[in-house]
């Protein structure tokens, strides 16, 4: 086993909880997918509104914890020293993990409350995607500030700052600050939704995208030996485009909450530009590494990095642009086309990032001096997840097209048109496909768990080979 800094031990704590919550996300997602087929399933015990909420919130939390793990893992490599305030960092992990457990129990057994201050603070805020009670919101911001302190204090103590660390420090402030926007309450629904989107869209798609740029830059330098100048050059462009276009990209949501109609066109164009620099960074790194025949000691991490580049481009870029164009979004907004985009974008941009980082950590723990970290089981999980995700995305896309036509263009978007469209075979049959591919994805997750638990434990002599 390679030497572990305290910072990397904290990273492993976050990675462990993240991979468990990944399973929880999939479990509740399967239940929700089946409830589309059979709405009576678990009705009165665990209704769709709760399973969907748990599915989405588990996804957000496990991805965030994986990113935090990545931050603590790269910190010693970038600064040349251990983290400052390790005990505080472990305390933050414990508090965040405990808070997640308490919130999930409340979601499962209490679910709703009266429309009063007590419910807002201790049960749920009742706002879609950010349902967590107020105390949990404040806890998330506090954890972000502790992580910022850990990184900033370590950088100051080391007397060294790199391009990756500079971007990380700025992004961590934005990560804490933008989440506060979701705590505002106004009686005007347009104002309320305006700030709500700053969390739901900008917090996730801007600050997360930049953070992933930092983590992917570190991953490329570690796995492929990519020169820092390539990584940091594209990362600076990523920051410029994400924060420069991210706010304007919000406009394709603004139109639907009562703001002027010009936001629809502005948002549809600018929201599609965000993932381009990150894709270019990875393509450039692969091109540079091609001179050395893509030599690597960590094959699973390398292939998850490939997936991240192309999944991000197609999921966030192509799929996002496809249905945010004003002429299309006028009919497609809120249909299963949005779910199709969301599944592919989150899987490609964020899930792939976290899995790659975990394999990088396993390389250091189990095979620091070699051999190549490789197995057959990661390939089964990798292919299974890609095939099943493409199946789910395709099924949702077909359902979304049908909704757009039958419910919006032909019907006129009334409540009765929604019900009619849901019963149409072009919508109901894809729900069956989505559930079936979801089962395959869950089985692939179990294979991934097995591989993470076993890869690298059997030491064999091997040379570095082209990927």
What does the model show?
The protein has helices spanning 6-37, 48-79, 86-109, 117-122, 134-158, 163-180, 189-223, 228-249, 251-254, 262-270, 276-290, 299-324, 326-332, 336-366, 377-410, 415-423, 425-454, and strands spanning 295-296, 465-466. With 467 residues, it is mainly α. The chain has three domains: 1-161; 187-295, no CATH class; 298-459, no CATH class. Strands 1-2 form a two-stranded antiparallel ribbon. Helix 1 (6-37) packs antiparallel against helix 17, helix 7 runs antiparallel to helix 8 and helix 15 (377-410) packs antiparallel against helix 17 (425-454). It is globular, with a radius of gyration of 22 Å. The two termini are 24 Å apart. Pfam families: COX1. It comes from Hydrogenivirga caldilitoris. Keywords: Membrane, Transmembrane, Transmembrane helix.
Short description:
By secondary structure, this protein is an all-alpha fold.
Question: What is the helix content?
Answer: over 70%
Beta-strand content bin: under 5%
Total domains: 3
What's the total helix number?
17
What is the subunit arrangement here?
single chain
What order do the SSEs take from the amino end to the carboxyl end, as H and E? HHHHHHHHHHHEHHHHHHE
Amino-to-carboxy terminus distance: 24 Å
Overall pLDDT level: 87
Rg from alpha-carbon coordinates: 22 Å
What is the SS-derived class? mainly alpha
Give the neighbour order of strands across the main sheet.
Answer: 1-2
């Amino acid at each position: 086993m390679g030497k572990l800094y305290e910072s990397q031990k904290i990273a492993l704590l976050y990675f462990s909880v993240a991979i468990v919550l990944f399973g929880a996300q999939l479990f509740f997602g399967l239940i929700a997918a089946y409830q589309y087929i059979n709405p009576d399933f678990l009705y009165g015990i665990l209704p769709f509104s709760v399973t969907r909420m748990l599915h989405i919130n588990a996804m957000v939390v496990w991805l965030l914890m994986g990113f935090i793990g990545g931050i603590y893992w790269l910190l010693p490599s970038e600064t040349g020293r251990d983290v400052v305030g390790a005990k505080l960092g472990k305390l933050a992990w414990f508090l965040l993990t405990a808070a997640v457990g308490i919130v999930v129990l409340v979601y499962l057994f209490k679910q709703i409350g009266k429309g009063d201050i007590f419910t807002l603070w201790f049960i749920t805020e009742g706002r879609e995607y950010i349902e967590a009670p107020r105390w949990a919101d404040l806890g998330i911001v506090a954890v972000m500030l502790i992580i910022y302190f850990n990184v900033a204090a370590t950088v100051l103590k080391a007397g060294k700052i790199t391009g990756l660390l500079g971007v990380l420090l700025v992004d961590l402030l934005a990560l804490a600050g933008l989440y506060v926007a979701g705590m505002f309450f106004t009686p005007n629904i347009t104002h309320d939704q305006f700030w709500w989107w700053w969390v739901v869209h900008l917090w996730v798609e801007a600050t997360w995208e930049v953070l992933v740029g930092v983590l992917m830059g570190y991953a490329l330098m570690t796995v492929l030996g990519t020169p820092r100048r390539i990584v940091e050059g594209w990362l600076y462009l990523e920051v410029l485009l994400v924060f420069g276009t991210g706010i304007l990209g919000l406009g394709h949501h603004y139109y639907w909450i009562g703001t002027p109609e010009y936001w629809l066109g502005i948002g549809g164009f600018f929201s599609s530009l965000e993932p381009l620099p990150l894709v270019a960074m990875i393509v450039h790194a692969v091109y540079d590494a091609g001179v050395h025949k893509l030599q690597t000691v960590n094959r699973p991490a390398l292939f998850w990095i490939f997936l991240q580049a192309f999944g991000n481009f197609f999921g966030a870029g192509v799929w996002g642009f496809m249905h945010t164009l004003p002429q299309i979004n006028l009919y497609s907004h809120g249909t299963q086309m949005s779910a199709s985009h969301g599944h592919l974008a989150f899987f490609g941009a964020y899930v792939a990032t976290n899995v790659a980082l975990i394999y990088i950590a396993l390389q250091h723990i189990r095979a620091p001096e070699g051999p190549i970290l490789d197995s057959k089981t990661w390939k089964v999980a990798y292919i299974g997840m890609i095939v099943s995700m493409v199946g789910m995305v395709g099924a949702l896309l077909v359902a979304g097209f049908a909704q757009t036509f039958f419910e919006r263009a032909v019907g006129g978007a009334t409540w009765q048109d929604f019900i009619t469209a849901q019963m149409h075979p072009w919508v109901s049959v894809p729900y069956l496909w989505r559930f079936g591919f979801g089962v395959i994805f869950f089985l692939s997750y179990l294979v991934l768990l097995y591989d993470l638990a076993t890869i690298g434990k059997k030491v064999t002599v091997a040379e570095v080979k082209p990927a």
